[in-house]
Amino acid sequence: MLVWFWLGLIILFLVIEAVTVGLATIWFAAGALAALLVSLCGVGILGQMVVFFLVSMALLFFTRPVAVKYFDPHKIRTNYEDAVDKTVKITERVDNIGGTGAALLNGQEWTARMQNPDETLNEGDLARVVAVEGVKLILAAIQEEWDRK
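-> structure tokens emitted (149 positions)
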């Protein structure tokens, strides 16, 4: 009787999932559960294997991306992901070589560095945020072409 085989696989996959916490084997545990259920209905070994494979692959390909998106423990979300492309005001001269620079974003002062290390910005200038690296804003100078027209 293959019921014990499928039950053993379910337990094995669940133990591996509990140890790794990577959302990798839970889909195969569900496939083994489906195979166990069809085994109880009297379906032969070939049918059980097909059900195991199809259910495991369907769950892996269709539900894993959604589950990883919502349950990924390694992704640290911040409130400043939307800072990119915002305009900031320089509050302290930004000079990568001198290691200085600060800018005001949403009422908070951030350490600022230039995207192009050869450029500098002075206090009062405006810049565009191109990236956030840790607690630093990476900036690009705003071109003043509009003022010249």
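Residues 3-20 form the longest helix (18 residues).
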